[in-house]
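task queued by scheduler; priority normal; single chain, no ligands, no partner chains; default sampling; output format set to structure tokens
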Amino acid sequence: MRSGELASIAGVTVRTLRHYRTIGLLREPPRGENGYCEYSIDDLLRLLRIKHLASLGFSLDDIGGMLDTLDSDDRSKAADLLDELDRDLVAQIDALEQKRQTLALIRNEKLDADIPVRLAAIAGMLKEHGLPEEALKSERDAMLLAGAMLTETDLDETEAVYKALVERGLMDDYVKINDWIMELAPDANEDAKAAVIGKVFTVLEPLLDCFNSSNWDEEPTEAELRTEALFDQYQEQLLNPAQKEVCDRIIAAIQEQVTGQPAN
């Protein structure tokens, strides 16, 4: 049998045959004078066994070992491989059930599906409280970066701050922060920048108890440094120099208040 015929009978593609040969699941068949592969019935039988084991959920890495075990005199290891596969399938079922619960939450709460659920809930809350669309997009982008790079502890802090904004009646003032910062001209003088920082800090000061000092006091990890670099890069394309300086100084002021130590 040539490759196309074998693939057709087994219900796989010729590309799959080549891949199975490359990783050693199928032997390299002899070739006729015309250069075409010539497969035997034994090759077909092995291919059908591979396909069935794959349908049960065995990975290609494990199928070779399972076939070797089944072809040996001692099949005791086959039970271990089946038990291991069963555990993997249970874990997959649990993961799929968790995904279904997440999808249900996204549907029921009408959350954005393209960012982590915890952050999507925050974005929805900001939208509900009137954050302008352009500012909301910036918040969502920042959250997406945060969701990819920050730890669960960092995200706990983020969630706590935004929840407190609502619970303490500060959301209306928070919505104004974006306007205050974005109104700064690139060449804004120190008085203008200091005035914005003062107004922003008036909104944020009642939230300082929501910040986790250990998140701000410890030496940053490599992942956190990468996150900071990404945020800097993001801000540089979004903000003019005066606006970015103000944002950096606000973060430094928060760090100083939370840790009791001057920011580096």
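post-processing summary
- The domain at 3-94 is CATH 1.10.1660.10 (Multidrug-efflux Transporter Regulator; Chain: A; Domain 2).
- The chain has a mean pLDDT of 87.
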